[in-house]
């Protein structure tokens, strides 16, 4: 299976949109969203999302206008080890939102390492 830049960006867009919806539904109003796609963050920050043909990107922009407290923070992909590990464990076949109440064993080491370095 070949994954191109467009595919990766589409996944990032979907994850950001679903994350914002989930946060809103759970009552969070001040949100700090970490994303390893600098291109997507700039697209949203600069207002270009409102001109997009993609309904998901416009949806992100709309939720950001509702969530006046949304802050985007770019993180390097290699720093986002937990997301990478979960994606690899699912073989790139994740086509639905999965909410983990407890982190899987295979990512706990990464999370504990992150806590130690905060």
UniProtKB/TrEMBL annotation:
GO molecular function: nucleic acid binding; RNA-DNA hybrid ribonuclease activity
Domain annotation RNase H type-1: ranges: 6-88
CDD domains: RNase_H_like (cd06222)
Listed InterPro entries: RNase_H-like_dom_plant, RNaseH-like_sf, RNaseH_domain, RNaseH_sf
One of the Pfam families matching this protein, by short name: RVT_3
SUPFAM superfamilies: Ribonuclease H-like
Domain of life, per lineage: Eukaryota
Name under which the protein is recorded: RNase H type-1 domain-containing protein
Organism for this UniProt entry: Gossypium davidsonii
